[in-house]
Amino acid sequence: MTITVRELVYYPVKGCAGTPVDSARVLGTGLEHDRTFMVVDAADGAFRSQRTHPAMAAIGVEVLDDGTALALSAEGIEPLRLDIDPGGPHREVSMFDRPLGVAADQGDEVAEWFSDALGATSRLVRVVPSFDRDGWGDTPGKVNFADAHAVLVASTASLDDLNARIDARGDAAPVPMDRFRANIVLTGDDEPHFEDRVRRMALGTVELAHSVRATRCAVPMVDQRTGRRSGPEPIRTLSTYRREPEYKNKVSFGAKNAVVREGVVSVGDVVEVAEWLGR
């Protein structure tokens, strides 16, 4: 059995479309450029999410010029090129009603752009150089604007098993991997959810360690290509076999990991599992 890296994706703006890559530098907070930006409510700095604004999924984001600019696109509005201001005015921001400290506001033009795209008055902010946020779990690690952890890992075996169960119900189509917004997709092991039991792994020159299982909300019911809700799958089927009593009975898919050694990872890299749970 050889486990390899099948896909790599980073998400420059939290909640917006991802960028698939063949190779990525991995920092202590995850794949380079991953969730370094966040859209917030202009009034109170609370983060915006696909949970309440599913249209975010279809907003395209391209990192330009070694991270000094962004190209933004959305259906029905003019695209925008944004020159990033890492020293922009500081704004207090929060996530899940918890303060995160300050972030760098990226100006009025992009604020108006996101406000138009989402139909809600918004601002775009970026992590500041001093941003220092801890994760939690077995290996907490550090994190930017992801929900709570640096790297989300999922496997093709888990998705294949889920889609077989959806197909058996006979009333819904299979779902693609992008519903789960994973950073790293693994393949090569036929056991569904084997990623849950990987405690420590090396891939490329990177080493990851398990934090927690990835519990799921409404976001996997959003079609990531159209930005429209398309439930009840996959949450309906996941709820029949992936309830997690230790996580308030939420459903899970994938595993969240901390970065314990920075480096570079590429599609096709062999994954060396240094420690398994129960194996």
Helix content range: 10-25%
Tally of separate helices: 3
Mean pLDDT score, rounded? 97
Which residues form runs of ≥5 with pLDDT under 50? Answer: none
Task: Please tag this protein with its features.
globular; 4-stranded antiparallel sheet; 279 residues; 9-stranded mixed sheet
Description:
- Helices cover 10% and strands 40% of the residues.
- By secondary structure, the protein is mainly β.
- A hairpin with a 5-residue loop joins strand 18 and strand 19.
- The two termini are 14 Å apart.
- It contains 3 helices and 21 strands.
Topology:
Blueprint: E1 4-10, E2 19-20, E3 23-27, E4 30-31, E5 37-41, E6 60-64, E7 69-74, E8 77-83, E9 90-95, E10 98-105, H1 108-118, E11 122-126, E12 151-155, H2 156-169, E13 184-187, E14 198-203, E15 206-216, E16 222-223, E17 228-229, H3 235-238, E18 243-244, E19 250-261, E20 263-266, E21 271-276
Parallel strand pairs: 12-13
Antiparallel strand pairs: 1-2, 1-13, 3-4, 3-20, 5-11, 6-7, 7-8, 9-10, 10-11, 12-19, 14-15, 14-21, 15-19, 16-17, 18-19
